[in-house]
Amino acid sequence: MRVSADGSKIFICGGTESATQIETEICGYEPTTSNRRGFIAEFDSTGQLNWGSYYDEQINSIDIAEGNGKATDIYFTTRTNIAGLGTAGAHRPEFDESLYSSGLVGKFTVSCPDMEADISYTGTALEGSDHFSSYTWYHNGEAVGSGSEYLPGSDTTGYYYYQAKACGCVYNSDTFFFDPLGIPEEELAGQLQLYPNPATDELHLRLPNALSGAIWTLSITDIHGRKVQEQTVHGNECRLNIQKLPAGIYLLEVQYQDRKLRKKFVKR
């Protein structure tokens, strides 16, 4: 085991019989053979895995050399009887098959991959690039969530970005300004769900996710424009009792500040 100079990274090595749970995407070395007898892994100071890689043989010892940049050189020793692990220009690049096994000194260089931390709005959620191992979302500088997607509430206008990790490296996305009232009204109306339609006794209403948490005013008018029912809705789902309404065609309207979303339904 080795620890980085600042104590933020812990490197371990050894042998393994496990074929899963060690290797990480993007950052790992692909063994020359089908053997996966050894491994090298890096953890952060909290015990979270930054990256892990299999090796063809059990790794007996490691040492690290940290550069001024983001690259870290990892030197390791092992014994092997596998041909093809040596590199051109090495002291002995080829395995001597007359021997049972030979010692091997190797070197890995761990550096930060060149990856983009994109951020976009899907219509219901903020979405980050999907190739990172962990995400922390920030709203106006405060951590608010994790995962590759984050669903902001209706009252959380402001600046969002996320910080992501891969291979022990940290990536920051651009800043995205989210304003739920800036979403086109026709887009919000398309996300308004009202079912069953036609209905007999009860209607289920689901409001757009982007405006969940808001307090809405809900009203129902008949074909003559007369308001026959009104109530306040908090959250993005509710049930409406329409048992007392006469059969006919009605217009349901939900209003949030200056936004009005409408949907027709039929009462049987």
Short description:
The chain has 268 residues and is mostly beta strands. The chain is built from 1 helix and 22 strands.
Helical percent range?
Answer: under 10%
Number of helices: 1
**What is the terminal-to-terminal distance?**
73 Å
Strand element count: 22
Features:
single chain; 268 residues; mainly beta; Immunoglobulin-like; 3 domains; five-stranded antiparallel β-sheet; 1 helix; 2% helix; 48% strand; elongated
Provide an overview of this structure:
This protein is mainly beta and 268 residues long. The chain folds into three domains: 109 residues, no CATH class; 60 residues; 85 residues, Immunoglobulin-like (Sandwich). Helices cover 2% and strands 48% of the residues. The protein contains one helix and 22 strands. Strands 10, 11, 13, 14 and 15 form a five-stranded antiparallel β-sheet that branches. Strand 8 and strand 9 form a beta hairpin. The longest helix is centred in the last third of the chain and has 6 residues. The radius of gyration is 29 Å and the shape is elongated. The mean pLDDT is 85.
